[in-house]
Amino acid sequence: MNGLYDLGGADGLGPVNPPADEPVFRAEWEKSAFTMFAALFRAGYMGLDEFRLGIEKMNPAEYLESPYYWHWVQTFVYHGKRTGRIDMDELDRRTQLYLDNPEAPLPEHEVSQELLEFVDAAVWGGIPAQRQVDARPMFKPGDIVRFSNDSPTGHARRARYVRGKVGEVVQHYGAYVYPDTAGIGEGECPEHLYLVRFTAEELWGKQADPNSSVYYDCWEPYIKQVKQEGALA
């Protein structure tokens, strides 16, 4: 989908100046939000791409004005409501309870060692998305390709600044879960994934640094061949 969250290449936002000593977490609640992702993933609330789709559903103004981990909380709530795992009336009551009584004790629960081990493994090792497929890759390093100029309506990894642009395939990674289907609950449908190099001039015009390039991960359906290595396609 096209949305405000797709900020890459947007004008008027000024330089990015991260603090020199930025803390990993700015507040205690952010630690809980971070650990909740792996736990809710394990519980079947959402996959990674569904997680991202929930963030894309946020109100644009709230998205820009809220802290990073608040985006995580919002997608947890979105998918909890979507799947019926969260009762919104109960959530509102519990939220108000702790707003009115911030020192009120949290509910006690039994810690699952299996879940702790899964969360630890997911945090440090990630959640593998590579899959085996029978289909052969359509492209190889050196091929010149054009990124699709389609406007996606669901979740996709198609930044506006690369749409319609021409680049060179640098690497083939193998097949990976396809965000466009996984993000809307239509299955993993793995597709071949490539690293494609776009020159800065191709992306930003003649005013760009001629010695700079952007390397972008492109699933196979995102690109079409313009020229094979050494010959016109």
UniProtKB/TrEMBL annotation:
The keyword Lyase applies. The gene is nthB. Residues 1-109 form the Nitrile hydratase beta subunit-like N-terminal domain. Residues 128-224 form the Nitrile hydratase beta subunit domain. Gene3D superfamilies: 2.30.30.50, Nitrile hydratase, beta subunit. NCBIfam families: nitrile_beta (TIGR03888). NHase catalyzes the hydration of various nitrile compounds to the corresponding amides. InterPro entries: CN_hydtase_beta-like_N, CN_hydtase_beta_C, CN_hydtase_beta_dom_C, Elect_transpt_acc-like_dom_sf, Nitrile_hydratase_bsu. It catalyses: an aliphatic primary amide = an aliphatic nitrile + H2O. This is Nitrile hydratase subunit beta. Keywords: Lyase, Plasmid. Its EC number is 4.2.1.84. It is an enzyme of class 4 (lyase). Belongs to the nitrile hydratase subunit beta family. GO terms for molecular function: nitrile hydratase activity; transition metal ion binding.
